[in-house]
Design a protein that fits this description.
homodimer, alpha/beta, Rossmann fold, 3 domains, 10-stranded mixed β-sheet, 6-stranded parallel β-sheet, 14 helices
Chain lengths: ~400, ~400
């Protein structure tokens, strides 16, 4: 039997306890031994809940109990999760987490520490909820030279954009609806400004490329400026608007690679695997030099899918109690190239009377008119660097909105 | 350094050598040691090809060389692949394969033998080419009680159906085009009759449910009867026609599970993750009791994606040279329930003058008319058992075609 402790009895923590209870037969078989929750750490009490008898308020009880071999950290945030994780690993306990902030900030550090202590630091649930993309990067796509990881990594914003696209709602109404349905927080900033997706792509790109990509260096834009008119023209041209978190490399002149990363709304063409990912679903697109296109799709959030990924990690930790699993992510920083030099096409909306100027200025490749919005037109620009686009954009002075186009 | 041998220098075998050569730096780092091809077994010689110096015609050279730790079996077929695989495992060498026939027929037997010899039998490339679905089932979705695995597992038939749907071609023309493009064999029977997909779903369902599902017991229908008219009405009603290989369980009256499996053309509704999987791409949909919907999408065939999956297995085999990885698939047979008792809705085409009779007889839930084909109508029946549907179908006598509807 292996005893585990769960830190935090919130949405994910209670899901972890439920998955371990409801699927215990299968889980024990796959782990090779019964897996039992010995403690649940929470500030609160839960009178009447069967978990109450396992509740402790003091982390040192868990830390000092040699029977606890695996600690599940599902508290979120940096404090006190950082201290607890460090102490648990130092004490020779494996840690499984869904805490994207902590993994993005200290992933490489904890992986080193885990290796030193012959235990594991596992974080499948930190990106894309129940989608097993981290294990795919670590164990399956190992023969690949991965050149792109792009994902729809935030269910809240994807729900809002899907609603705007399908129902014609404006951003504020769609956000309000998402809040009423419990898909968005009362303070939605971390989601709608792209901060959540930024942490996740920092983790995925660090794993894909092997070195640390610091989330602070990832250019991040949210979806608050996306309007109904953008949706109308995008749809007319056969695109969907998605908040993409994307990291990719481009061979430079000297044969080395330039690495780019950003989080921003993109137009995704019909036919791209991410085009049809709607509602609260998440998906991660990976392109490898041998594999070509691949995509992993599933529930990106929610108590049970996320908990299922955490428990999958717990099973792996139990099967490898004193053997560190291979994860290629070291603490060396991978320097990103400034987005200004990234080359891409842009979608712009302009007043209809500026169309002929815009056509020439932006070397338009395509032009979109709408029956609904007659005083505007939209254009697809030629491929150009972001810097060049910004210069033209400033010079023109009349562009109503602009959205990057995914290749 | 670890030496490997590749059995068969055909499409996949040559891809394996290419992946190992082009991505060698990454691969050696992930394997923790250089991985080198020492022998390539083939009946032919390849003068002028750098592989020539590694070519051997006699398997016993490989078998008796203690330096060879991993054998890549990419010959296909049962003979002599069965004997070679058995001998290699008996000799304490791990085997990595893309051979779906062999895995479907002898997977559990080889897994037992590998466990006994402390080596590995790995077959990620046997289902869905480069899609890492087998490792997801074995290592990621371990906390799940999986209730359905359904896939578009054959690129040839998916290409044909996509062409028929998009371009309005008939089956024969689409097949001919697929053959000209190299997507279909000159003898296309294994693909178009569903035999290939049947082997693959036998493997995936055995892994998902833990016991052996024999492919011979899986009801299998191909796509040769799908017509242009089916496509017209299906599209009109918002469905795509897909050859699905599907295995699922349904709780029965006594609280136990009934297991069903079949390969057949299905109508897939717009909105289902598999609806937009087009062309030669493959995808596997998995539903788990905690996870909900998930999907894995990618290149289902082709030299390099398949080879990339084989090499991913080689890396795993090298990292675990004398430690058997956990795979839950035992030799106990999982009895399937006869499809006759499976409950579902059906799509039928009927002559327009029989519409009112058909409406009542099949308890129609929906009705589809077409501007293109005016002398027919299509119906969506009520949900009923396959047996009941067959009875009504025989009694009516006028149904032009019928296709199952995916839920």
């Amino acid at each position: 039997m292996v005893n585990i402790a769960v830190l935090g009895y919130g949405t994910v923590g209670s899901g972890v306890v439920r998955v371990l209870t409801e699927n215990s037969k299968k889980i024990d078989k796959k782990a090779g031994t019964p897996v039992r929750v010995k403690y649940v750490l929470d500030l609160r009490d839960f009178p009447g809940d069967p978990v109450q008898e396992k509740i402790v308020h003091d982390f040192s009880i868990i830390l000092n109990d040699p029977e606890v071999k695996v600690v599940v950290e599902v508290m979120g945030g940096l404090k006190p999760a950082y201290e607890f994780t460090r102490a648990a690993l130092e004490a020779g306990k494996s840690v499984c987490t869904s805490n994207k902030e902590l993994v993005a900030e200290h992933g490489a550090e904890f992986l080193d520490l885990a290796r030193e202590k012959n235990v594991n630091y596992l974080f499948e649930a930190s990106c894309g909820g129940g989608i097993p993309v981290i294990r795919a990067l670590n164990s399956s796509l190992t023969a690949e030279d991965i050149d792109e990881v792009s994902g729809i990594l935030n269910g809240t914003t994807n729900y809002i954009l899907s609603e705007m696209g399908e129902k014609g709602s404006g951003f504020d109404d769609a956000l309000k609806e998402a809040q009423e349905l419990g898909y968005a927080e009362r303070n939605p900033e971390a989601d709608v400004e792209g901060y959540d997706a930024c942490r996740k792509i920092a983790i995925l790109s660090s794993l894909a490329f092997g070195h640390t990509i610091k989330y602070r260096n990832i250019h991040t834009e949210g979806i608050t400026k996306i309007s109904h008119a953008d949706m109308v023209f995008a749809k007319e041209a056969g695109f969907a608007v998605k908040l993409l978190a994307s990291a990719y490399k481009v061979p430079d002149d000297k044969g080395a690679n330039s690495y780019f990363a950003l989080v921003a709304p993109f137009l995704v063409r019909n036919g791209h695997p991410l085009y049809n990912v709607n509602g609260v679903f998440n998906a991660v697109y990976i392109h490898g030099n041998m594999l070509g296109d691949s995509m992993f799709y599933g529930s990106g959030a929610g108590s049970l899918p996320t908990a299922s990924a955490v428990v999958g990690d717990v099973i792996d930790a139990v099967k490898h109690l004193s053997r560190t699993l291979f994860v290629f992510w070291d603490s060396e920083e991978l320097k990103l190239v400034d987005n200004g030099s990234a080359e891409r096409a842009f979608f712009i909306r302009v007043p209809v009377e500026k169309l002929s100027d815009a056509r020439i200025r932006f070397e338009a490749k395509d032009e979109i008119l709408s029956d609904e919005i007659k005083d505007e037109a939209a254009l697809i620009t030629a491929v150009m660097s972001e810097n060049e686009f910004e210069r033209k954009f400033a010079e023109a002075g009349y562009v109503i909105s602009r959205i990057r186009i995914n290749k």
